[in-house]
Amino acid sequence: MTQADEADTVEPMIHEDDLPGHESRLEPKPDWEPRYKGSDRLKGKVAVVTGADSGIGRAVAALFAREGADIAILYLCEHDDAAKTKSIVEGEGSRAIAIPGDLGDPQVCEQSIQKVVDEFGKIDILVNNAGEQHPDKDVRDITDDQLRRTFQSNIFSMFYLVQSARPHLKKGSAIINTTSVTMYQGSKALLDYSSTKGAITAFTRSLSENLVGDGIRVNAVAPGPIWTPLNPSGGKPPEELKDFGKSTPMGRPGQPNEVAPSFLFLACEDSSYMSGQVLHPNGGIIVNG
């Protein structure tokens, strides 16, 4: 990376608001455990899951492992959570490696992908799930560093990872990106975050067009309000947490293990005729997607 690149890379905002948060400290704990026995739908596959230390990423890693995949857990700095996810994957009989690093840095992405290939020999599935959000009531309160950091973490990282993984993806591979209901509804307090989610949806559709001819499918999942460390660690003001998710038609927040099956469907051959699409596990919110 050049000196100019280094100057343009914004450091993680961990010290500002304790992001992205530890699941080990969260109460009540999110439900990540798969609900059903596996059926080898991902047997012999290798999956890279970003943000897999906690929340939706952990639930995806656990479910993919139950279905037979080996898992590369990419995460920022929550080593205790990542170790827990690694033990969950291994408890399902699959292999796992945990790789820390800031995915907003293209060199970290390149090095992480190389570690996966060195360990497992291939990559079949890339789940771009890592992200961050910071609430601001006034658009003028969004600092330049925050704006750059949110885009860097949420969408730049996806470009960097796809660029690094592309030589290893082949016919039958799948890429799944995490967008959000905020892309469709908007969010008055998450202006920069919802903007990145709009970019992710456009990236998903465009990348699908770019890769579908090579037999690589690209889809996305747009969760609604899901109980993960992202919410109490910066996603929602403390006074609003008690009502988190109550505005959905189902009247409650979702759990990570209610979202993970959407990722599994898009990763396996059940969705072999789908690309450029978005699934919406969001508690019944009607969106034009």
Automatic annotation (TrEMBL):
<dbReference type="Pfam" id="PF13561">
    <property type="entry name" value="adh_short_C2"/>
</dbReference>
<dbReference type="InterPro" id="IPR002347">
    <property type="entry name" value="SDR_fam"/>
</dbReference>
<protein>
    <submittedName>
        <fullName>SDR family oxidoreductase</fullName>
    </submittedName>
</protein>
<comment type="similarity">
    <text>Belongs to the short-chain dehydrogenases/reductases (SDR) family.</text>
</comment>
<dbReference type="InterPro" id="IPR020904">
    <property type="entry name" value="Sc_DH/Rdtase_CS"/>
</dbReference>
<dbReference type="InterPro" id="IPR036291">
    <property type="entry name" value="NAD(P)-bd_dom_sf"/>
</dbReference>
<feature type="compositionally biased region" description="Basic and acidic residues">
    <location>
        <begin position="13"/>
        <end position="37"/>
    </location>
</feature>
<feature type="region of interest" description="Disordered">
    <location>
        <begin position="1"/>
        <end position="37"/>
    </location>
</feature>
<feature type="region of interest" description="Disordered">
    <location>
        <begin position="228"/>
        <end position="255"/>
    </location>
</feature>
<keyword id="KW-0560">Oxidoreductase</keyword>
